Amino acid sequence: MTTSTRRILRIGPSYPRPPTTHTVRHSADTVPDSLQAPTRLLARRRAQAYLLLLATDFIVLSVVCSVTRIDRPAQSAAIIVAILALAGAYRPHLTLSLLDTLPRLALASTLAALATALVLTPNGTLVGAAKLAAVTLLAVVLSRNASYAVERFLRRKLRGGRRTVIIGGGPVAKILADSIVMEPSSGLQLIGLLDDSPHAETARNGTVPITPLRGNLRAYLTTHCIDTAVLAFPHAVDGAVIHALRECDRIDCEIFVVPRLWEMTAVTGDMEHIGTVPLKKFRRAAHRSFLWRVKLWMGRVLSAAMLVALAPTFLAIAVAVYLSDRSAPVLFRQKRVGLDDRVFELLKFRTMSPASDHESATHWCIAHDARIGHLGRILRATSLDELPQLWNVIRGDMTLVGPRPERPHFVDKFHATVPNYEARHRVPTGITGWAAVNGLRGDTSIGDRTRFDNYYIENWSMWFDVKVLLMTIVAVVRLGGK
């Protein structure tokens, strides 16, 4: 990245690292309250719109089913609405057009009605199922048409809306700005354009202000309570754009991107459009979801159960470590960097002769270090030395699966030399991780580890964690050494 680009689009993490002289306990969501207030409001608006649409469908379906004498109208309506919700029929849209959504809505409602008929009347006739499908389609069309009309009216007449900025100052950004101003029914309140080009100056595009982006992007977004950010070919190179996307996601700012070759891009079902400009919505990062919180609490419960179940193993290892060197402590404690660059004290069974605090914090340990004894090699080969980190998981410092934590000295070094290294700290560190089970541990490439860790974060799912845990068990059984 050029010096001018760094100066203009300084969008890397701006939060200071706490001193490394004390332990910091933290939870999975450490965004300050001052940053959470506008995001809570946006989340509440999304939930209200979702529930309003869902409730309207349920009421209209129940009424229409009753009028047309469908058996068990309330139950039928409830099942159909639940299936439609699972099919994504209540996903919010910028452009509210019944004709745009009608093909997918017709298919989803028909399949939902047939499934409902199969559940409620398994011995019913094909004619009865077809009748329910026709009634469902009619009810959903009536409900959606009414809901869209009300929402368009509210978007036009009521002040406010999703506070929106366009990042980019080129022709596409200006076309998009004009389209947003001309379509108030989109629900976007355009605050301005952020021009990150080297020679950007304060100007206006009609009624829309153009502001040079000279400072930290996240600071601007939070100061102006921005709900939605649209990237329209910013001047910055791709690496800086990736940082911008992560900064927006960090404060739960909704993100849209104008695709490359947008004039030739078809608007498919998972895209939006404002006027003639297609927009690709970036899904909220998986680690910001409710399921991620479930993962963290499941990890704590599982770790507590493992501590109890493995108590005899802990005792045996502790005795063996103590007998191997009675002058040294059984547990090895070391400062490591975790979520949001916070420092915590990691626990391990001691596997090598004690070093000075400075040497322990600043020297890289290799597999054939002479200070590692015979017992230490066994513990490292089987990863049994990591077992005390179950307590770190219970305490909230770590989780079972995540990027492996590193020492503050090396984190400072890697921040400056390894691209996207700081992005690893978006989530809590783990006892095992995607990089570790792929052989990237010990004296291996930090760049490769970073890529694998960020891949895990971007593609996280519950099954991904199960996969990593199963691969970890296989690796331990095979006695893969460090």
From TrEMBL:
Native source species: Rhodococcus opacus
Name used for this protein in its record: UDP-phosphate galactose phosphotransferase
InterPro entries assigned to the protein according to its UniProt record, in alphabetical order: Bact_transf, EPS_sugar_tfrase, NAD(P)-bd_dom_sf
Lineage: Bacteria, Bacillati, Actinomycetota, Actinomycetes, Mycobacteriales
Keyword annotations of the record: Membrane, Transferase, Transmembrane, Transmembrane helix
Gene Ontology MF terms in the entry: phosphotransferase activity, for other substituted phosphate groups
Annotated transmembrane regions: 49-67, 73-90, 102-120, 132-150, 301-323
Any single Gene Ontology cellular-component annotation: membrane
Membrane topology according to the record: Multi-pass membrane protein
